[in-house]
């Protein structure tokens, strides 16, 4: 037998830095009635997913010999002061979680990550430059442009209070992810089909979750406007040492996906 409907299998690039691979499937006109992305989610269905912004902060100081540090302006020290201030914005965004029901029970749904820092030339000069690469998440429904302007305003307001930064305003640029989150509204026929397939494959009801990580499912949810099901195997150490998925879980999820395709598309002789 074979699926009675058309099944598109899409393998795309850039899920880790822009989401542009999945976006291109939309821009090129591929369409379906539902999408399933087998991202490792511990055999649960993602109900809500954050958006993500990447941005860089460039700080310029003034070089000097360390014997006369006061004559220079340390860009690395200034960059850390900016990050300390941005932690306040992170706390403010986390305090807004009660306006977002899917995230209200999470202890810290919004995470600001300083992922990379570059600066200075060597140990015996006051560093005149520093670049920070950062990532922060957004609640579903928050427009990426609005969040970006809030970040820019926060940095500009702090810089105006800092003598060094007031004389050398930091530059903020947005690169990579500029992505908004989504909510999978319950009650779709696609979700019901996946729930039945999961129960048949695992003997357990299908649970749901929110995730603070980027997912390509957002492209299909926001732009294709179809049920975007993100459901995959149990994992460990994601983006860490010895990242792995559980092989027994992979087998269960593979069976569930096959049963989902059969239920959703129907079957016909091959």
Report on the architecture of this protein.
This protein has 270 residues and is of the alpha+beta class. It folds into 2 domains: 132 residues, Zn peptidases (Aminopeptidase), CATH 3.40.630.10; 129 residues, Alpha-Beta Plaits (2-Layer Sandwich). It is built from 7 helices and 15 strands. Strands 6-8-4-9 form a 4-stranded antiparallel β-sheet, with helices on one face. Strands 10-3-11 form a 3-stranded mixed β-sheet, with helices on one face. α2 packs across α3 and α5 crosses α7. The longest helix has 21 residues. The N and C termini lie close together (4 Å). 32% of the residues are buried.
List keywords for this structure.
270 residues, elongated, three-stranded mixed beta sheet, Aminopeptidase, Alpha-Beta Plaits, 25% strand, 2 domains, single chain, alpha+beta
Compose a concise summary of this entry.
The chain is α+β, with helices and mostly antiparallel strands and 270 residues long. The protein has helices at 20-27, 75-95, 144-161, 163-167, 189-202, 217-224, 247-265; strands spanning 2-3, 35-37, 44-49, 51-60, 64-65, 112-119, 125-126, 129-138, 171-179, 182-183, 207-211, 228-230, 235-236, 244-245, 267-268.
